[in-house]
Amino acid sequence: MSARAHHVDSEGELSPAEISSRRQSNSPSVHKVGVPPKQNMFNEFMYTFKETFFHDDPLRHFKDQSLSKKLMLGLQSVFPVFEWGRNYNLKMFRGDLISGLTIASLCIPQDIGYAKLANLDPKYGLYSSFVPPLVYACMGSSRDIAIGPVAVVSLLLGTLLRAEIDPNTNPDEYLRLAFTATFFAGVTQATLGFFRLGFLIDFLSHAAVVGFMGGAAITIALQQLKGFLGIKKFTKKTDIVAVLESVFSSAHHGWNWQTILISACFLTFLLVSKFIGKKNKKLFWIPAIAPLLSVVISTFFVYITRADKKGVQIVKHLDKGLNPSSLDLIYFSGDYLLKGFRIGVVSGMVALTEAVAIGRTFAAMKDYQIDGNKEMVALGAMNVIGSMTSCYVATGSFSRSAVNFMAGCQTAVSNIIMSIVVLLTLLFLTPLFKYTPNAILAAIIINAVIPLIDVNATVLIFKIDKLDFVACMGAFFGVIFASVEIGLLIAVGISFAKILLQVTRPRTAILGKIPRTSVYRNIHQYPEATRIPGVLTIRVDSAIYFSNSNYVRERIQRWLADEEEKVKAVSLPRIQFLIIEMSPVTDIDTSGIHALEDLYKSLQKRDIQLVLANPGPAVIDKLHVSHFADMLGHDKIFLTVAEAVDSCCPKLSDEV
């Protein structure tokens, strides 16, 4: 018998652990997995705390600066106007003036309509486009965002408020609760920003937001059928079934043909204007001024024809003057305090999600950075101040921000210009809106919410991730068939469910060797990858925590059982080594280590050696502290899968 044959026979009598040990001793250049230096508990806690709340190192600009410079930097961080204002010039003002006047022409008619969505007098919509934009211009860091009431938040606020107080029977208490909710919306936003908890809004996934916005847009459009058709008695519910039932039940006696004519003509005009603006970006100003132009023409038409005498509903009286103080109207005690807090938190979070998303979108387009936490403080401050000056919840408007961007805005001065125009309107022009038909406001709102129905994004979500699509559709149908708050609850619930599913059921994969390389990859992704006889290599694509440790252990054991059946069926060498590729395992807790211990003991009984490849610093440190590395054997932990396979069966790995 030859020496080589004798060697093979003698190895056949050894256990997998002895085979691995003998081969590793003869294997050249096997690298050990490095163990990070020990850190004390305080340093480890501070590192985790910093990475969680201060990952962007917001105080880096203050290092090595004089006291006066630090004070100036501190002032600029709270009020960015002191930073960009120093370099402001006439050229920038020209761009801001044009964009400010443009968005003002868009916001005035929208504000009147959005206030009606919130079941408030139209003047409160104008108030909310006067004070909040001024505050944001001083404290906000986005150059492009246009501040004011928006359709979705107005509808959400109106729905939540109406559930507590009927605005028709108790208008004063309803108004007080609206200001209370606005106050707590601002407090919520500012608190999240101050304590750097902005990451919480990221729990509402993009897919859920797309579905929620689309459902809210359809709900808003359906609500406008009251004004669009001239219906006087209309349901207070927002679900599609109740609304359509209300619409068709009043078809024979409740519709007004003059109102429908006005609505249809001007909605067509608005849609054509929007189409022209999309086709030619230089004509962006046409869809921007179209709403105001529609209001002027329709108001004049109603006035000269006295269509209001023929059933066309009009705005009627609109108070003149600046925002009155409303501090004494906010509930700081009593039963409505908690109700206002609850409504404020919900509406504030939705407003925050929309504003931050808009700010980040336009910042990326212009290649500058915004601090999400500072934005939250700015938005919160403007809503707190707004609640004290007769405003309801304001946030960033996507349609107005897009117009602001295309009009060439340079800084937040465009918001100041818009506020000045709204101020002049409040002081001198509000009586002119007396004969403005509700029909034109309905047409303007329908035109404004159509872009919120993002079909392309929904199709893309379906193609990319089916679970995301379920979240999207769940939020969408929840809004249109139940209510806005139910849709929002479904959106949040499905977003959390997706996170839990991904955490508790991480992906695992069997790896094979790419031919003529030392690289091991998923055999389903790379069908040409080959398996090493006697070795099963599995990759775990997640941290191993208490929530998934049992699943990971059971899944690995199931992979092993399936593989052993296949091997037995085709008379191949039995599995002697189980290699776990741990590169994606970013962390492990005590439950995860116990799961590995149970797996190791189970494999020992079946005469299979457990081997680990490339555990990260956090993982290898915990494996050493828990003494699992000693139990497994330090010679069973390798830097790469290739080294682990070479150590287990070098001859076969070379041949593959």
Task: Provide an overview of this structure.
The chain is mainly alpha-helical and 656 residues long. The chain has two domains: 82-500, no CATH class; 505-653, 2-Layer Sandwich (Transcription Regulator spoIIAA). 62% of the residues lie in helices and 5% in strands. The chain has 29 helices and eight strands. A six-stranded mixed beta sheet has the order 4-3-5-6-7-8. The protein has a two-stranded antiparallel sheet with strand order 1-2. β3 (508-513) and β4 (520-522) form a beta hairpin. α6 packs antiparallel against α18 (398-406), α8 (131-139) packs antiparallel against α19 and α16 packs parallel to α18 (398-406). It is elongated and about 95 Å long. It starts with a helix and ends with a helix. Mean pLDDT is 90; it is low at 1-13 and 23-28.
Structural key phrases:
656 residues, mainly alpha, Transcription Regulator spoIIAA, six-stranded mixed sheet, disordered N terminus, STAS_dom_sf
Write a brief caption for the model.
The chain has two domains: 82-500, no CATH class; 505-653, STAS domain (Transcription Regulator spoIIAA, 2-Layer Sandwich), CATH 3.30.750.24.
- What structural category characterises the helix and strand content? mainly alpha
- Counted by DSSP, the helix tally is 29
Tell me the strand order in the biggest sheet: 4-3-5-6-7-8
N-C termini distance? 27 Å
Q: What is the residue-averaged pLDDT? A: 90
Number of domains: 2
What is Rg?
32 Å
Apparent shape = elongated
Residue share in β-strands? 5-15%
Helix content: 55-70%
Given as residue ranges, the uncertain stretches (5+ residues, pLDDT < 50) are 1-13, 23-28
Could you tell me the number of beta strands? 8
Largest sheet: 6 strands, mixed
